Amino acid sequence: MAAPQSCPATAACSALPAAHGPVPSARQLAWHGREVYGFVHFTVNTFTGKEWGYGDEPESVFAPSALDCRQWVAAAKAGGLGALILTAKHHDGFCLWPTATTTHNIARSPFRGGKGDVVGELAEACREGGIGFGIYCSPWDRNHAEYGRDGYVAAYHAQFEELLTRYGELCEVWFDGANGGDGWYGGAKEKRAIDPASYYRFDRLWARCHELQPGAVLFSDAGPDLRWVGNERGVAGFTNWCRQNPAGLAPGGVKDIAYLTHGDPAGTVWRPAECDVSIRPGWFWHEQERPKTAEQLFGLWQASVGHGSALLLNLTPDRRGLIPEQDVAELAGFRRLVEGFTATDRAAGRPVITDAPGRGDAAALTRGGGWWAAAEGATTATIEIQLEAEQAVTGIRIEEEIRCGQRVEAFAVEAEYGNAWTELARGTTIGPQRILRLPPFVSRRLRVRILAAQAAPVLRRIKVY
Ligand code: FUL
C-alpha cells in the first residue's frame, strides 16, 4: 500500500506492521469488502411446495410463467446486496442449467421450450447489473441413481467443470452440509449413508474451483475460505474471530457449533464466518409465508455485518419466477435503514489524538486510506476523536487493519460528559468491522479504548454516526 500523505517519511510508516497470525487472501479480502450478499433458492420445490425435494419430481413441474433474472438483480440492488448466489442444484438433484451430467435438468422442463438456462440468465443479469454472481451446487443429490457410489462423485465433479467454465467470473461457491439419508436415487427409494469427510473428494474439487475461479471464495462448515456461522438465523457471534484450526473439520461434519459461531482466537487459518438466513421462513417460496420486515433485516445486518461477518440474505422467487413485490419493498426499506444509519460520518476528517504516538498515521483513522498501530508490544491504546461540535451520536464503526491479522480482544467506547468519560459500549473482537449502536448521547469528544489485544492493535478506520 502507498504511504499515507500526512505520514512522516519513516520506514515504519510506509510498511504495514508484520502479520500477527493468519491473514486474509486476496479473494477473502474482496469478500470482506462486499459485506451484504444475496442468496436465491429456486427450483422444482418452488412448484411443489417442498423445502427438500425427494428427487422424483418430474422435470415438467418446473414452469415459471414470467421468469426475469433482471428483476431479481433489481431486487438485490434495491436491498443493497452486492452479489447473488444461486442454487444451481439443490438436494433434489434438478439442475437449473442444461447439463450433460444428468437428464434431470431444465432442458426436459417446459421452461423456454426446453432451451432455458437459469444459471446463464442470472449470470448475465448480475454482470449487467454490476453485482457479483455465485453458485450453490448441492453435494447431496436425492435424484441420482449412483449417489453413495463413485459414479455420482464423478458426475458431481463434472457438474462443477460446467459451472466453473461456462458462466464467467464467480465470486463465491457455496457447499452446504446436508448429507445422505433417504431419497429417490434413481427409483431405489432407500436410505444411503456416506462419510461426509471423504466421500465427495472435496480436496480435489476445491483445488479445481480455486484453479478455474481464483477470485471465488469457497464456503462450507469447514471452509476452505469461509465458514458457516453455525446457525441459519443470520446472527454472528458477539465474539467473532475470523480464524479456525482446520484439523479434523469437514463439511457437514462439524459438531461444535460454538466453534463455528465464535471462531478460534488461536486459529491457524483465516476463515471468517458468513451468516446465511432467508428473508422468509423457508428457503424456498411458499404461498402462505411472508417476508421479514425492513426493521428485522436491519437488526440482522447489525448482528452479522456489525459483528465482523457478512450477511447472506436469501431471496425466494415465486412461481412466476419473480421476487415477490412485498419482499422487494422490505428490501428497499432495509437499504434505507442502513443508509440512514450510516449516512453521516461525524468523525470524517476530524482530529485524532492517541495516548502514545504509535506507528502509521492516526489522522488516517478518520480520513481513510491508511492505518495506525500502537507501538510494538503495546496491547492497549486510547484513540480520541474530537467532533466538530457537541452533537448527538447514535453509532460507531471500528475497523482493524486485517491485512496484519486480527488482534483486538476487548474494547470500550466512551464519551465525555462534563469533565468525565462515560462508557457507552463495550465489545470484544473487532476484526474487519464492528458496528455498534450507541445509547443516545450528546458530546464533542469520543474515544475508543482498546483494553486487550493479542498483539499491538492496528486500526484502519473509525466512523461515528
Ligand atoms: C442447508 C440446506 O439443507 C437448506 O435447504 C438450504 O439450502 C440452506 C441454505 O442450506 O444446508
Summary?
This protein is of the alpha/beta class. Helices cover 23% and strands 26% of the residues. The chain has 11 helices and 20 strands.
Describe the fold and architecture:
The chain is α/β, with parallel strands linked by helices. It has 2 domains: 11-19 and 345-464, Sandwich (Jelly Rolls); 33-342, Glycosidases (TIM Barrel), CATH 3.20.20. The protein is 23% helix and 26% strand. The chain has helices at 11-14, 26-34, 44-48, 69-78, 118-129, 150-166, 202-212, 257-262, 294-304, 325-342, 364-367; strands at 36-40, 83-89, 132-137, 172-174, 181-183, 190-192, 217-220, 226-228, 243-244, 269-270, 273-278, 310-315, 352-354, 359-360, 372-373, 381-400, 408-417, 420-427, 434-453, 458-464. The strands form 4 sheets. It has an 8-stranded parallel barrel, surrounded by 6 helices. Strands 13, 14, 15, 16, 17, 18, 19 and 20 form an 8-stranded antiparallel β-sheet that branches. The protein has a two-stranded antiparallel sheet with strand order 5-6. Strand 2, helix 5 and strand 3 (132-137) form a beta-alpha-beta unit. Helix 4 (69-78) packs across helix 5, helix 4 packs parallel to helix 10 (325-342) and helix 9 packs across helix 10 (325-342). The radius of gyration is 24 Å and the shape is globular. The model is unreliable at 1-13 (pLDDT under 50). Residues 51, 176-178, 276, 283 line the site of beta-L-fucopyranose. The site of beta-L-fucopyranose has 6 residues, from loops.
